[in-house]
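Sequence decides. Consider this:

===
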Amino acid sequence: MESQNTNVTENAKAMLKNAKTLKLHTGNLVIRSRLKKKCPSSPSEELQDCIRATLIDWLSTTQLPSEGGVSDTVDCSIPEATEAIKPEEREELKVSVKLFLCETDQSSIPEAVEMACQTLAVSQLDSVIIAPRGLPEGEVQTLAHLQPAWEVLEALVGSKKIAAIGTSDLDKDLLEQLYKWSQVKPSSNQVNLASCCVMPPDLTAFAKDFDIQLLTHSDPKELMSSSTFQEAVQESTKELTVADWRLEWVLRYSIIVKSRGIIKAKGYLVNGRKASP
């Protein structure tokens, strides 16, 4: 049995070694968190713990494909921990998503949305909040920084992949600029109370006048760096070289029972890509 387990792990490592893209799904953390001995101190620590745990479980259970070939893309997930939505319960549930972009390539947005829809077995996400890639120190975010991603989100609303779109950490002036410029108006704006203990009155007034929901969050400016992602993969896979892997995006989802306001499922989808030589 030990020899068999070793072979399974080595097969999985061979798949990772030859892969160019890693797509990871943590599964439903509402179920998996019951097995954890500690509560994470931050969203970043939670994500890092989940990547490690998912990779370790996946490495111990994955066989090489029956056809013997090794794909460029590795789908790392634990089937029994996945919470797909049944058609008969879809109307009772709200699927909310926050997408953290780690690269400037806007093509990752429809890719992430499609992966979320496929994973959760839905045709449309009820809401998507975008968290753009952080800017270099000293650079101030402007409307020009937001426009490319927002245009992609608007197209996804037009194709009915997303019902509503929102923003994160915009002050009143920038939120107003986005509202006036956009075709699809922001339905919500998240505010980090770590940097703002009380909602700014001007932001509150503008949001009320234009029916924008103000939400709070505790996410850091950078949820996870590529180096932290590499560290999590390295700790799980031991001898594999991970220095050439970079993190492209992270999507966090919540499935909420509308009538009761409770979270039925939550989890992360993570996309990493190996840098071209």
